[in-house]
Amino acid sequence: MATVDELKERIAQLEVELAKEREKTGGNVAGARKKIDQMSSEVVDSNPYSRLMALKRMGIVDNYERIRDFTVAVVGVGGVGSVTAEMLTRCGIGKLLLFDYDKVELANMNRLFFQPYQAGMSKVQAAEKTLRDINPDVQFETHNYNITTVDNFQHFMDRISHGNLKGDGSVDLVLSCVDNFEARMAINTACNELEQNWIESGVSENAVSGHIQLIKPGETACFACAPPLVVAENIDEKTLKREGVCAASLPTTMGVVAGLLVQNTLKYLLGFGSVTHYLGYSALQDFFPTMSMKPNPACDDSFCGKRQEEFQRKEALRPKTVEVVKEEEIVHESNDWGISLVDESSVDDLKTQPAPELASGLSYAYDKPDETTKDSDEVVADTDQSLDELMAQMKSL
Amino acid sequence: MVDAATRKTLSNIPLLKTKAGPRDKDLWPSRLKEEYQSLIQYVNNNKESDNDWFRLESNKDGTRWFGKCWHVHELLKYEFEIEFDIPVTYPQTAPEIAIPELDGKTAKMYRGGKICLTDHFKPLWAKNVPKFGIGHAMALGLGPWLAVEIPDLISKGLVLYKEKEENGASK
Ligand SMILES: [Zn+2]
Question: Which portions of the sequence form the region Disordered (chain A) (predicted)?
Answer without folding.
Answer: 348-379
